[in-house]
Amino acid sequence: MAGTHQTEPHSITWYACNEHIEVVLDQLVDEAETAPDLFPCEPEELGTATCHWCGSTPSYRLSAQTNHE
Ligand SMILES: [Zn+2]
Fold it and tell me: Domain of 16?
């Protein structure tokens, strides 16, 4: 069974608006089983990214690394 099963870190990126940062953060902790990093959104992300909760323009990017499949 050598080299057949490799767990690679999996990265999850979600966005959240000001209003839903807490609920999105909560959900991502649930999903990733680890605390995500929080960054302010870059201006160029605002055209494509949407809040994970409500779909409006986000203010934050949340990024988590997980080994969970
Ligand atoms: Zn929102």
Answer: 10-66
What mean pLDDT, rounded, does the chain reach? 90
What does the alpha-carbon distance between residue 50 and residue 55 come to, in Å, rounded to a whole number?
A: 5
How many angstroms does the Cα of residue 28 sit away from the middle of ligand 1?
Answer: 14
Q: Is residue 5 part of a domain?
A: no
Domain total of the chain: 1
pTM score: 0.82
Dist. CA 33 → ligand 1 center (Å): 22
User: From the CA of 50, how far away is ligand 1's center (Å)?
Assistant: 8
Task: Give 38 Cα–ligand 1 centroid separation in angstroms.
Answer: 15
- What pLDDT band is residue 23 in, cutting at 50, 70 and 90? very high
